[in-house]
Amino acid sequence: MDAENLPVVVIAGRPNVGKSTLFNRLIGRRQAIVSDMPGVTRDRKEGEALMRGRRVRVIDTAGLEEAAPDTLFGRMRSSSETAVEIADLVLFCVDARAGITPADAHFANWLRRQGRPVLLLANKAEGKAGTDAALEAFSLGLGTPLALSAEHGEGIGDLMGEIVDRLPQAPRAKSRDEDEERPAGPLRLAIIGRPNAGKSTLLNTLIGEERMITGPEAGLTRDAIAVDLHDEHGEIRLVDTAGIRKRARVDEALERMSVSASIEALKMAEVVVLTIDATLGVHEQDLQLARLIEREGRACVIALNKWDAVENRSATRQAIADRLEISLAQMRGIPVVTFSALTGAGVNKLLPAVRKVYEVWNARVTTGELNRWFEEALEKHQPPLVDGRRLKLRYMTQVKSRPPTFVLFGTRAELLPDAYKRYLINGLRETFHLPGVPIRLQMRGTKNPYADK
């Protein structure tokens, strides 16, 4: 497809909200100059990005500002408005740390009048505090904000998935034997783990050739290497990564870059296979990687490699299961597959487990089913008192999948204690069969109009 015929995604927003940083992230290279000084971007910059197998034309625009048409800032705004007119999707960025400004509200109203599809992005939303601040962007009336950090690469994989889902379907010629439409792109699968866990051997076994150099020495793989694999269900984009050691033990610049590439591959994946040397059991570093996978919202399969070398398999499996239950409660029910990558025994169980957890990661629950369960959950266990008053929780809705994400509405819902959130998340996981994937539960309070009277 020619570049001019590609779907157009335009990044818009007021100055210094991180548009150019996001642009660089999406196209995969530092093309746009990035600075803390507002107004660095003046002309539109264009680049091509590959998102879930689709080529997309991305346009970075100057910051939207109120200014007279004959001034420099007025011409910059006019250029940005022209880009919006040709957009198939507008990414409207706000700064989660700064909160919603009058300029954000003004240009959100302007965007609504343009009749273009808009995806609201709350950038600079690092960590839990940033995610909570991002919810303020609900007030703009542009739908559910997607929290991300372009600078740190957090949420970029989710953003690319949302972009592709909202773009017009790409025309594609069907083969004579094909009745069903294929997915927009291959399933993105990353293989991560500590050094010498057998990641490269596993990739070689899966694709049936010696694609990766392997050996007894730890750290042979230094970069994230991607290969394509086809099974009976479709295409998988496999990425083998360098082993990740504890941060304190990573000294050389080359290894630091390798680890950085591995973590970036994890963030861009949809499913992550966490490969563990079963003869050594679950190490604290393995748990740290699992927690990183959970924080990034990826689906995960635990792969216990070198299973043929384990002497007491029953005791080893039970010990690992107990460790995961205690230390990874936030991903309860995570699938565990045992095999030997070297001999190939049991490797055939891995991709079916990957496909299954991928389906769970994409699961959606209807609002009706969700609120029938929610009412029963409230009856069984009433919300606690906060400052002597009971919280009034009203209803819940699922705002997205990948991973399953729910928003709970109610008076002072943002004050809900963590213990009650865990109760609700565990109930969601059990009732709607969501084992082993991260579940996001966001709170949105409703303001009492008489509170300040």
Automatic annotation (TrEMBL):
Keyword GTP-binding: yes
Domain spans labelled EngA-type G: 7-171, 187-362
Biological processes annotated in GO: ribosome biogenesis
InterPro entries for this protein: G_ENGA, GTP-bd, GTPase_Der, KH_dom-like, KH_dom-like_a/b, P-loop_NTPase, Small_GTP-bd
Record-linked Gene3D superfamilies: 3.30.300.20, P-loop containing nucleotide triphosphate hydrolases (3.40.50.300)
Entry-linked SUPFAM superfamilies: P-loop containing nucleoside triphosphate hydrolases
Residues where GTP 1 binds: 13-20, 60-64, 123-126
UniProt keywords, alphabetically: GTP-binding, Nucleotide-binding, Repeat, Ribosome biogenesis
Keyword Glycoprotein listed: no
Binding site for GTP 2: 193-200, 240-244, 305-308
Stored CDD domains: EngA1, EngA2
MF terms (GO), sorted A to Z: GTP binding
Cited function: GTPase that plays an essential role in the late steps of ribosome biogenesis.
Protein family according to the UniProt entry: Belongs to the TRAFAC class TrmE-Era-EngA-EngB-Septin-like GTPase superfamily. EngA (Der) GTPase family.
Subunit structure: Associates with the 50S ribosomal subunit.
UniProt protein name: GTPase Der
